[in-house]
Amino acid sequence: MQALGIDVGGSGIKGALVDLDTGELTTERIRIRTPSSFKIKVVAKTIARLVDRFEYHGPVGIGFPAAVANGVVLTPPTAHHVPGWVDESIDDIFSAATGCAVTVLNDADAAGLAEMRFGAGRNVDGVVITVTLGTGVGAGLFMDGRLVPNLEIGKIYLPGHDEVVEQYMAQRIKNEQGLTWSEYGARLNEFCLHVEHVFSPRLIIIGGGVSEKHEKFLPDYPLKRTAVVPAKMRNQAGISGAAVWAAESFRISGK
User: Fold this and answer.
1) In angstroms, rounded to a whole number, what is the distance separating the alpha carbons of residues 74 and 191?
2) Phi and psi at residue 104, in whole multiples of 5°?
3) Which residues on neighbouring strands pair with residue 227, listed in sequence order?
4) Rounded to an integer, what distance in angstroms lies between the CA atom of residue 62 and that of residue 238?
5) Is the pLDDT assigned to residue 45 strictly greater than 80?
6) Model pTM?
7) Which of 10, 99, 187, 233 is the Cys-Cys partner for 79 at CB 3.0 to 4.6 Å?
8) What are the tens digits of pLDDT across the range 145-195?
9) Looking at the predicted structure, is the pLDDT value of residue 221 above 70?
């Protein structure tokens, strides 16, 4: 079985059909430029265009850059500071625009869900936290493989710091401040130690583009009780996780 997963990003809206057994993309990934206005009706029409490209009529999962609960947007989208999204039921709006049954979740939650089903978190029980490093810092929180949505871990403060985490150790910050890998690894380790102290997870999974170079900064910074490993799903995580969310929300069997 397969489902359509879509990842709404700041510059592009990407989608592909996903094999629900493996998490692999079964079609080429199609990308449409994100509308610069980021108005809700314009984004809905763009998503509908993307769905039409696949000639697809089944359930659709969408990873979206905001906190989302029961299909309703809770916080302004991080990619575009545009009013008009908060308290809107985008499950309903996107379903009406596409003619498909659509379910939406936070984009970092989608990436984390892919890691838990098909990647580094597969078959790991207990508390697992997935971290996505990029322009900001996203995260997913899982208990025995089940998603606890909307962990805004990038907004926390580390002890002794005046800025939130995503202003201290996002991948963007490494680039902007010209940090060496050792310096960046020390910041990430400080963050992971705090996460370990607060949540006591069995596993922390580090994702985002920077995870491709994990050997430069992860091995030298072991934690006391928690394993820290790189993500495996990489760039397809958001799409795969969104498809899984649709499958599990609408009870599509992957067997």
Assistant:
1) 25
2) -115, 145
3) 203
4) 9
5) yes
6) 0.92
7) 10
8) 999 999 999 999 999 999 999 999 999 999 999 999 999 999 999 999 999
9) no
Mean pLDDT for the chain overall: 93
Sign of CA dihedral 212, 105, 56, 250: positive
- Would you state the pLDDT for residue 73? 96
What secondary structure, in 3-state letters, does the chain show? CEEEEEEECCCEEEEEEEECCCCCECCCCEEEECCCCCCHHHHHHHHHHHHHHCCCCCCEEEEECCCEECCEECCCCCCCCCCCCCCCEHHHHHHHHHCCCEEEEEHHHHHHHHHHHHCCCCCCCCEEEEEEECCCEEEEEEECCEEECCCCHHHCECCCCCCEHHHCCCHHHHHHHCCCHHHHHHHHHHHHHHHHHHHCCCEEEEEEHHHHHHHHCCCCCCCCCCEEEECCCHHHHHHHHHHHHHHHHCCCCCC
The torsion of the CA quartet 46, 49, 51, 53, rounded to 10 degrees, works out to -140
Cβ contact 87:45 at 8 Å: no
Residue 49: phi and psi, rounded to 5, are -60, -40
Any bridge partners for residue 62, and if so which?
Answer: 6, 104
The β-bridge relationship of strands 12-19 and 30-33 is antiparallel
Both tokens of 83, joined, read 């009013």
For position 255, what pLDDT does the model report? 33
Residues in the chain: 255
CA–CA separation, 129 vs 147, rounded Å?
A: 10
